[in-house]
Design goal:
The chain is mainly α. It has two domains: about 10-140, no CATH class; about 150-290, no CATH class. Helices cover about 65% and strands about 0% of the residues. The chain has 13 helices and no strands. It has helices at about 10-15, 25-30, 35-45, 45-55, 65-85, 90-95, 100-130, 140-145, 155, 165-190, 200-220, 230-235, 245-280. Helix 11 runs antiparallel to helix 13 (about 245-280) and helix 12 (about 230-235) packs across helix 13 (about 245-280).
């Protein structure tokens, strides 16, 4: 029986995470997979996860399941490497291979970026092959995502760049749902009633507002190291050199505040567009174009 769901030998793991020492045996690595496996079952749905696992354990052959196995293995190996790397810190220090905190954080970020890339590939593969992975379209992630105003990472990226990450976008789905219910729908009403041609400007404003407010919320709720690399780098630039968790937190809060401010401004413009649509006129409040507001409304 395999020591983990999708790996039989330590050599298989090192195909994805070469930094794992060759001397490590499977029983030394098994513990690190418990949390990642549970996380993947929650993300993909247990039925879809088990379908990919069964293909691997039966030594199945054929696309797209072969690729699904490789992407899921890559994600699991890198997520497990984070766990193992932290637990292995004591051994490294005893052997006088001391690693500074910032170096550990950099290595963990590499593992997480790799896992995110693998999961992005896997999610894209599942979306393109719902006829093969028949349980995927019934999962909570898929059904909730498809019900949102923005339904793909590519579309979201038109309004705010997230490194083209399908996985990071999957983590934004519930945040978008919250923002839509709390901020967007009270202004727009029935979004599905908007016409793609005559209401194109309103639809675009809705999506831009949603993207910025969602990202502001994401930056406050997610750990710094879980953010896409470009966003981490942009946040780090606000303090030039990030040397501590406190500085990282300060940088992220500053970016989040800026995004929320823009999002609120976009929301105000959206409300004016909706008023114009319903009344045929636009009465611009003085405060919208106030010199201290930082932006000017154009109609």
């Amino acid at each position: 029986m395999a020591a983990t769901d999708l790996f039989t030998t330590a050599k298989e793991i090192r195909n994805y995470v070469p930094v794992i020492e060759a001397a490590k045996q499977m029983d030394e690595l098994e513990f690190a997979f418990r949390e990642p496996e549970a996380k993947m079952k929650n993300l993909l749905g247990e039925d879809t996860y088990n379908e990919i696992k069964a293909h691997y354990q039966a030594s199945g052959s054929g696309e797209p399941k072969d690729s699904a196995v490789k992407y899921l293995q890559g994600a699991l190996a890198n997520l497990a490497a984070v766990v193992f790397y932290v637990m292995d810190a004591a051994d490294r220090n005893r052997e006088e291979q001391k690693v500074f905190r910032y170096q550990e954080d950099q290595q963990k970020a590499i593992f997480l970026d790799n896992a995110s890339a693998e999961l992005g590939q896997l999610l894209t593969l599942l979306d393109a092959n719902t006829d093969t992975f028949t349980n995927w379209a019934d999962t909570d992630l898929y059904t909730t995502r498809q019900a949102q105003i923005i339904t793909s990472h590519r579309e979201f990226g038109k309004y705010y760049f997230i490194d083209g990450s399908a996985y990071f976008f999957s983590r934004l789905v519930l945040l978008m749902k919250e923002i839509t219910g709390d901020k967007i729908l009270p202004i727009v009403g029935d979004y599905s009633a908007l016409d793609s041609v005559t209401d194109a400007a309103i639809i675009d404003q809705v999506k831009k507002t949603l993207a910025y407010l969602t990202m502001a919320m994401a930056l406050r709720r997610f750990d710094f190291i879980e953010l896409p690399k470009t966003i981490r780098n942009n946040a780090a630039e606000t303090v030039r050199t990030v040397r501590s968790g406190g500085q990282e937190g300060e940088a992220v809060r500053k970016v989040a505040d800026e995004l929320e401010m823009k999002g609120i401004q976009y929301l105000q413009v959206l409300q004016l567009k909706i008023e114009k649509k319903s009344t045929g006129t636009l009465d611009e409040p003085d405060e919208i174009n106030d010199e201290y507001n930082g932006f000017y409304l154009q109609t």
